[in-house]
Task: structure prediction
Amino acid sequence: MQATFRQLRLLTALADTGSITAAAHACHVTQPTVSMQLKELADAVGLPLYEQVGRRLYLTAAGEAVVRTARAMVDEWESLEQQIAAMKGVRQGRLRVSVASTAEYFVPRLLGRFCQAHPSIDITLQVLNRDGVVKRLKENLDDLYVLSRPPQDMALRSEVLLSNPLVVIAARTHPLAASGTVAWQRLRSEAFILREPGSGTRLAVDAHFGALGLQPRIQLELGSNEAIKQAVAAGMGLGVVSRHAIAADARSEGLAVLQVRRFPVPSSWSVLWPEGKRLSPVAAEFVVHLRQACIDWEAHA
Result:
């Protein structure tokens, strides 16, 4: 089976974008070039690599198999390019990071500092809910992943980066905001606004409530911490969010962090990657950067 590296890159672009036009744009070539190269690749494989359903193209089983190998080859080649650049005294390459949405409060800042130190590195950041990050992790689409609750059904390498306490919040005018320390049993009568099922925060909160024997009365399920904070500030119920998602002065956001016994919910963020995955030089350097930056963060918290 004869296949060129260019054809494999084009197929991975098609898998990522779902269209010939978008793949051509991503690879800076013309649409006829993509069509011709992918036809030649399909002829070499001897099976169709994609099919059109509606206005989008989807990989066939053969196409998915080729893409898995193509991604591994592209990653290895990019790693080699980074190693050669390092030998020349130049730090360049690409870094792809997927983070859970709760980590958006600290990871972009750390990425910013890394970009300033390495302006020649092209960085792609995906911010998704936990399920979205886990999906990308299982498909090995990125170099590194940041999650608060890593999946248990995969062999992974991971490092804990930063504590992520989950606190109970209320509108600053809520009666419990002036109650001092609150017994957790008093939460039974309160309505809650929580993250959507499947998010890392929701998994941690459900496990903690279950351990307490507390069945929360859920008023709303929302897809972001910002939406929860707005709803809580409007007096629609209590929320449970990352302490990092709240301003140092919670009152400035119309909120109060309640001092509830058996809370905060313990949690932490980890950087992880599949077991056996060889990190590129840039990714390995970013792990070192994250490790030190998070030590500094907690020292000044």
